[in-house]
Each structure stands twice: as structure tokens, then as C-alpha cells.
Amino acid sequence: MQKSKGLLESEISKALTQWEKDFLGRGSVNVKTDIVRDMIVVTLRGVLTPAEYALCETKDGMLTVKRTRSDLVESGIDKLKEIIFDLTNQEVKNFHTDISTNNGERVMIFRLQNNYEKQLKS
Fold it and tell me: How many domains are contained in the chain?
């Protein structure tokens, strides 16, 4: 039986939170996943530590935090792609991510090979 879109989005959120805890040592405060056409858009809130917020008070510190966090996520990209494949049976074509040093929010976008949203039940 095929899973509903909402259930799948919830499962992706839980899996990425667990990945954060296992790989980065701590998870986000809040994670929301949306499947839109050929994209899985994940918004993670509360990803920065108090020390990182303090570093972000200067431009150099902000750039360091963004670069370090980006490098950490990119070093785990193979596992992230595996998680998405295991849950959706879809290959990830491209991956994009950015973090806001203002509010500690990260966005991850997984681009898939085709319009996965069309294949799902609402």
C-alpha cells in the first residue's frame, strides 16, 4: 500500500532529525517537510547553538558558521540521499542547502528525477 503524502513528509522529517542527532550530535527544534513537484523541501528550525549565534555577531563569524555548517552537511550528503531513496524509492538528482544565521533556520532541497508529488496520494 502506498503511503499518503502527509505520512511520507512526516517520516522524512523524523528521519532527517535522527540523521542530525547521529551525524551532527544534536537535532533541530522543529522540522517540516513538503513534497512539491520534483522537490522535497525540508525546513529545519533551531539548528544553531548559542555559541554559533554569538559568532554570527560579526561578518567573519557569520561566514565561518555558514561555511562550517555547509561543509558538515555536505560531508553527510551520501547518507541524506540514501535516506530519501529508502523512504521514497526516488534518486536525488541535486541537493541544495542554506542556513540563516539570523534565525538559525536551515533549508534543504532535494531535487528528484521526476515529479514525485504526482505519484502520491494526498
Answer: 1
- The string of DSSP letters for 1-69 reads -PPBHHHHHHHHHHHHHHHIIIIISS--SEEEEEEETTEEEEEEES-S-HHHHHHTTSHHHHHHHHHHH
Tell whether 120 is covered by a domain.
no
Residue ranges making up the domain that contains 27: 5-113
Tell me, yes or no, whether 119 lies in a domain: no
Task: Tell me the per-residue pLDDT of 27-76, one tens digit each, with 9 for 90 and over.
Answer: 888 999 999 999 999 999 999 999 999 999 999 999 999 999 999 999 99
The model's pTM is: 0.91
Give the integer Cα–Cα distance in Å for 10 and 33: 7
